[in-house]
Design goal:
Elements (H helix, E strand, L loop, with lengths): L11 H13 L28 E4 L18 E8 L3 E8 L14 E5 L7 E3 L19 E8 L26 E9 L1 E9 L10 E9 H4 L9 E6 L6 E6 L10 H19 L2
Antiparallel strand pairs: 1-2, 2-3, 3-9, 4-5, 4-10, 5-6, 6-7, 8-9, 10-11
The protein binds calcium ion (3 copies).
Length: 275
């Protein structure tokens, strides 16, 4: 029902650019901590530095799917990349960090292994807006090992069921409901970046950016297993999901080569035994 594109990009050219980025990256966190560091075009936020994975869903009408809200609730783009030490996340939305009314922004949900279980949550806001029951826990920049999520007000068919309903669509986590704080993101920013972006260029846009120490998530090697990043406002009127595929595993040796290797080993053992 949702038209989130999954145009993640890490082409050969991306690898080359990634190498260049790596060379330019000092060994400290936060190199990709501000919006400009992501090299995203002002005119078209769907373009991105091809060294990063990204997905975009910039909308410009009041209906967002499954709910309404226009630019003020639009989940527009997620970007991610990592190095040996940090996972970098950039998220663009029309939702401000501390709205005095309406629904507050949700948290960034992190699913290692892309298996549908969002183990970690990066808190983006402690605002409640008009709906404290959906606001979740924590302070901006907190990283949670999550034991429970809030899920907005819609069921999986797009029917309105209300906050905390047992019928709510659990594929789309909004705010961290419970868990333990295991650390905080480096250089967490929720910036107003003004107008000039995307299809509704005259309206306000915000960019959430953070570097997360990979040791908090279990180590850099886990990034090879794939990951998914998800964000929505606490109503879940619009959500965005970035699936990063697992790195390809090396192909197994052809059976003939294996057989030849075993024969060679047997021959060696026989030769040793006969000495
Ligand atoms: Ca938009
Ligand atoms: Ca959107
Ligand atoms: Ca997972």
């Amino acid at each position: 029902m949702m038209q989130c594109q999954s145009n993640y990009s890490r082409s050969v050219m991306g690898s080359l650019l990634g190498a260049a980025l790596l060379i330019a990256t000092p060994a400290s966190a936060g190199t990709i901590s501000s919006f400009s560091d992501w090299q995203i075009s002002h005119a078209d936020l769907s373009s991105g530095n091809s060294a990063v994975y990204y997905t975009t869903e910039d909308q410009h009408t009041d209906y967002l799917d499954p709910g309404y809200g226009g630019q003020g609730y639009d989940a527009e783009a997620i970007y991610t990349t990592w190095d040996a030490n940090y996972l970098y996340i950039g998220m663009m939305t029309g939702r401000e960090q501390n709205p005095s009314s309406g629904w507050a922004p949700g948290d960034i949900a992190i699913d290692l292994g892309s298996n549908g279980r969002y183990e970690f949550g990066l808190v983006t806001s402690s605002a409640t807006g008009s709906n404290p029951a959906t606001a979740g826990v924590g302070s901006p920049g907190d990283l949670f090992a999550v034991s429970g999520w809030n899920y907005g007000i819609w069921d999986a068919s797009g029917n309105h069921v209300g906050a905390n309903s047992p019928l709510v669509d659990t594929d789309h986590p909004t705010s961290v409901a419970s868990g333990n704080v295991i650390g905080s993101a480096d250089h967490f920013l929720y910036s107003s970046i003004g107008s000039g972006y995307g299809d509704w260029g005259n309206d306000e846009h915000y960019f959430i950016s953070a570097a997360i120490d990979l040791s908090l998530l279990g180590g850099a090697a886990l990034m090879d297993d794939g990951l998914s990043l998800h964000w929505a406002a606490n109503c879940n009127n619009d959500w965005i999901l970035l699936d990063v595929p697992a790195s390809p595993v090396p192909a197994p040796l052809p059976l003939m080569l294996l057989a030849a290797g075993l024969l060679g080993l047997m021959a060696t053992r026989r030769a040793k035994r006969s000495v």
